[in-house]
Amino acid sequence: QVQLVESGGGLVQAGGSLRLSCAASGFSISFNVMGWYRQALGKQRELVARITSGGSTNYADSVKGRFTISRDNAKNTVYLQMNSLKPEDTAVYYCTADSRIVSGGYWGQGTQVTVSS
Known about the structure:
117 residues, mainly beta, seven-stranded mixed beta sheet, 0% helix
């Protein structure tokens, strides 16, 4: 079965850093566009970053220069390095994978990131 399991979230002070990991199983991420979304309480879900199978990336304007998405195909894992964190980065972060089989793709359960001022 397909699974995406996020880890690495937690509580951090403004200006600090966190590294999120997304361990995939049941499929190979090498053939998929992988992404990170986030959803703050009471707000719409927002695309934070994405990476294609060829390594191309794009980011939300709010995180450019601070966040970096990467992938390790051998480990079947996607990462999100988050630096210079701000309180407005507080949200549940979700790992996603595009799919040609399942409409809407695959989603993990999310990991909470809380940035204190």
